Amino acid sequence: MNRKANAVWQGNGKEGKGQLTTQSGVLSSNPYGFNTRFETEPGTNPEELIAAAHAGCFTMALAFQLQGAGFTADELRTEAVVSLEKDGNGFTITASALTLTAKIPGIDQQKFDELAGIAEKNCPVSKVLNAKISLKATLQG
């Protein structure tokens, strides 16, 4: 299976502008640039997209772990915060912090922690990131 996206850039690094488009069309010429990455101009940026990918991948991986153990979540809500830090003349993604809030009928805390940990370590996005990954998981009610 392959998925693709395209980037188009015009201009230099700081004043230039780009657009991102995904195969599915969910992004279609979405703007990105220095101002959307390092300031607050509307648009997207690579770190935001990695955060979305990590949150989505982990959450789906946990849903499959739960299914395999005989549980179905009422709700899994995950936030991923990706950290970009200055590294010499460039930048490095140093961390992705996952925060999960889950409503899962019939599961105990130990089994929940076990399955969340497996999902965190084994989702494909976790495997590809060369960064510190952390997970704070809360089981509600």
From TrEMBL:
InterPro entries: KH_dom-like_a/b, OsmC/Ohr_fam, OsmC/Ohrsf, OsmC_Ohr_Peroxiredoxin, Peroxiredoxin_OsmC. GO terms for molecular function: peroxidase activity. Residues 1-26 are annotated as: Disordered. GO terms for biological process: response to oxidative stress. It comes from the Bacteria. This is Peroxiredoxin OsmC. The lineage of its organism: Bacteria, Pseudomonadati, Pseudomonadota, Alphaproteobacteria, Hyphomicrobiales.
